[in-house]
Specification:
Blueprint: E1 2-8, E2 14-15, E3 21-22, H1 24-31, E4 35-44, E5 53-62, E6 66-73, H2 78-81, H3 83-91, E7 95-101, H4 105-114, H5 116-122, E8 128-133, H6 145-148, H7 157-167, E9 170-174, H8 179-214, H9 231-241, H10 245-260, E10 299-303, E11 306-310, H11 312-318, H12 320-327, H13 331-334, E12 337-339, H14 345-357, H15 365-377, H16 381-396, H17 400-405, H18 410-419, H19 423-435, H20 437-440, H21 451-459, H22 465-478
Parallel strand pairs: 1-6, 1-7, 7-8, 8-9, 10-12
Antiparallel strand pairs: 2-3, 4-5, 5-6, 10-11
Helix pairs in contact: 1-8, 9-10, 11-12, 14-15, 15-16, 16-19, 18-19, 19-21
């Protein structure tokens, strides 16, 4: 295991007692009792005409057996001349140290304005230490704003702290490179971050080891999401039943609209059939005032012992079946009272509401199905599609727990959809039963499926038999003695 430290910046010229030039990083590596090793290499900038060091690499051992690699970069020009190398250095660092001399204010502001933004973009949640090195020269004791702004070449403590806040870093002031500031102050903070980096790497290594040990034998089966439709198969099946290619494309378009944004009734707005130009009466909601009102009514429907007044002109304009009924040689053309059979009063009122206002709001799936049957009886196809979409979105939005406990007979819903020629809804319901196979196969009405329907559901069921078989084998393997922890 290794720790990578990148030190950036020039803290100025400092010397050992024997007048040998030194620096913050080299002094720390030479004095720390936890670090042992020596300088291994010095790389030169080959692009420069005058040989000068780009960075110095130190390799040592920390805490006994941890490899410590330090890149000390005193020259900020590396970000201009070799951005690839500098980016890799920062990206691969476990700890970053930024150091500057408190008596070189010009260089401090140049670094802050030109290079700190670059470092911020390259940082990847690693700890940063800001080290302000040196004792300020000619520092005025007064702290008023006038005197503080006149310090000239000194970098104030406030400026250093502000830089540390920008980077989320730890700020240190090192007045000299003696044993106290290097060993206990700077060294203590650096070694704390080194321990944190080691702990994080050890934790990640243990997680990877556990994952590899857990699955070195049989891999867990992958459960794929249920496919809503096999478009080629669906289109081929529809072509067998429909001779007109235009009808095939219309059905496919409606199915795609329903599946585009599951659970949202607004998805129909993207359909080509929905985007057709609407007549002027669509924008006039005042007709609702006449709904179920005797004012100017010229026809009365008798339903379940009660009467519902209506207006022939609206019914003829909105429904072709009623237009033929009132204009042809039928009894309804000459009669004022017209009986209606096979439909409840609530459903018929919802049907009339759609004719008068071009909108409907079913109270639930059962009422929507009754309204779909009424719309099919009077051949109002757009209302049929609205009811289909309402039923589909309601079922799609139900969580598995609610599907398992609801009293709605989904197979009976399927049979009604087929009987009343709702091909889109019946096809979707078959896929819905197959997708939720584990729920609906436990219900008694599942046995009412026809042989053809049962075959389709078994073929497209989710999860598949193959997955359940693989899952059983994997569980057996996990609980076998071969896979138990050797320590326990």
């Amino acid at each position: 295991m290794s720790i990578h430290i990148v030190a950036l910046g020039n803290e100025g010229d400092t010397f050992h007692q024997d007048n040998r030039p030194s620096g913050l990083i080299r002094t720390y590596l030479g004095r720390s009792p936890l670090v042992s090793g020596d300088e291994s290499s010095l790389l030169l900038n080959a692009a420069s005409t005058v040989a000068r060091p780009v960075f110095t690499e130190y390799q040592a051992s920390a805490f006994g057996n941890v490899k410590l690699v330090v890149h000390d970069c005193p020259v900020w020009d590396i970000f201009d001349s070799d951005w690839y190398t500098s980016r890799n250095l920062i990206g691969g660092a476990d700890i970053i140290v930024i150091k500057y001399n408190v008596n070189d204010k010009f260089s401090f502001h140049e670094v802050k304005d030109n290079y700190i933004p670059v470092i911020k973009r390259a940082l990847n949640s690693v700890p940063v230490i800001i080290a302000a090195v040196g004792t300020r020269q000619n520092e005025l004791p007064c702290t008023c704003p006038l005197c503080t702004s006149d310090r000239g070449s000194c970098v104030s403590t406030t400026e250093g702290i502000q830089l540390a806040k920008e980077l989320g870093a730890t700020y240190l002031e090192l007045h000299s490179l003696d044993d106290f500031y290097i060993g206990k102050y700077f060294g203590g903070v650096l070694e704390y971050f080194m321990i944190q980096a080691l702990n994080q790497k050890t934790s990640e290594k243990m997680k990877k080891r556990k994952m590899s040990n857990s699955f070195h034998g049989i891999r867990p089966p992958q459960l794929e999401q249920p496919g809503a439709f096999q478009w080629e198969e669906l289109e081929e099946d529809i072509r067998k039943k429909l001779k007109d290619s235009g009808d095939v494309s219309n059905v496919i378009e409606k199915v795609k609209c329903i599946l585009k944004t599951p659970g949202k009734i607004n998805c129909l707005r993207n359909c080509k059939t929905y985007q057709a130009r609407k007549p002027l009466w669509f924008y006039n909601t005042s007709l609702k005032f006449f709904l179920n009102k005797p004012m100017l009514a010229d026809v009365v429907f008798e339903i379940q012992g009660t009467t519902v007044p209506a207006h022939r002109a609206i019914l003829v304009a909105r429904c072709e079946v009623m237009a033929a009924m009132f204009n042809g040689n039928y009894m309804e053309a000459k009669s004022v009272l017209i009986p209606v059979y096979g439909v409840s009063k609530e459903t018929f009122l919802s049907f009339l509401e759609y004719l008068y206002t071009d909108s409907c709001c079913p109270a639930g799936i059962f009422q929507a199905m009754c309204l779909l049957i009424c719309a099919e009886m009077y051949q109002v196809s757009r209302l049929q599609h609205i009811c289909e979409l309402f039923i589909i979105t309601q079922l799609q939005s139900m969580p598995s727990r609610e599907l398992a406990s609801m009293n709605l007979d989904i197979v009976d819903l399927l049979k009604k959809a087929k009987f009343h020629h709702s091909d889109c809804l019946s096809t979707w319901l078959l896929h819905f039963i197959a997708t939720n196979y584990l729920i609906f196969s436990q219900k008694p009405e599942f046995q009412d499926l026809s042989v053809e329907e049962r075959s389709f559901v078994e073929k497209h069921r989710w999860p598949s038999n193959m997955y359940l078989k693989q899952l059983a084998e994997y569980r057996k393997y996990i609980h076998s003695r071969k896979c138990r922890c050797l320590v326990m």
